[in-house]
Amino acid sequence: MSEPGGSGRGPGRPARLTRELVLDAAEELLDREGAGAVTIRAVAEALGVSPMALYRHVGDKDDLLLALVDRLAQRLPRPTLPDDPRERLLVLWVLLYEALAEHSWLPEVLARRRLMAPSVLWAVEAIHAAFRAAGLELQDAVLAYRLCWQFTLGALLVRAGLAAPSVQEQLRGAPDPERFPTLAAAAAGWRAAHGRDTYRADIAALVDRLLE
Fold first, then answer.
1. Given this model, what pLDDT does residue 128 score?
2. From the CB of residue 47, how many other CB atoms can be counted at a distance below 10 Å?
């Protein structure tokens, strides 16, 4: 196989392979088929090149995924943040949630590979600083961030359909009221909540408890 840009270039093959073209192809594959479908070989096939050609631009799959996560993080808007620490926290968490929700594969990648994109550190810094400004000690701010992040990631996984089924789904209908009276009474509430995105209200309630 000739080098990218050579005379042996096949139909659809890029004239010159670049890191951006590799990331574009990987992102398109992820959006179309999910995280499990993305390998160095699959991205190479999408570009019409050999896997070895990709290794000149990305080290391995983890390097590829981290580069993609970082590129998405670079697209995050930087809004004017409120002076009030609580309101600042809500703006930042909703910003992260909505940005991550745009790509259904992203929460799975973050949950399984524990990647941290350098380009999102400004938001992580701002969240820690807001917790501190609200009166939390540094270690408490770390724990509060960790709790909110785990909640946010869980909400994203549920939204993407990747988390465990709800109690109601596992029980396949209303539970036996004699054996499980509380669950049976809650069945209507489970049905009403199914499919609703309540993240904004939920993160507000969580932040309020953490700041008490």
1. 98
2. 20
Give the type of residue at 196.
R
φ, ψ of residue 35 in degrees (nearest 5): -65, -35
Q: Are 51 and 41 a contacting pair, CB within 8 Å?
A: yes
pTM: 0.77
Q: Provide CB contacts within 8 A for 86, sequence distance 6+.
A: 130, 134, 207, 208, 211
* Residue 59 Cα to chain centre, angstroms: 22
Q: What is the DSSP string of the chain?
A: -PPTTSTT--TT--SS--HHHHHHHHHHHHHHH-GGG--HHHHHHHHTS-HHHHTTT-SSHHHHHHHHHHHHHHT---PPPPSSHHHHHHHHHHHHHHHHHTSTTHHHHHHHH----GGGHHHHHHHHHHHHHTT--HHHHHHHHHHHHHHHHHHHHHHTT-SPPPHHHHHTS---TTT-HHHHHHHHHHHHHTT---HHHHHHHHHHHHT-
The pLDDT tens digits for 102-157 are 888 888 888 876 777 788 899 999 999 999 999 999 999 999 999 999 999 999 98
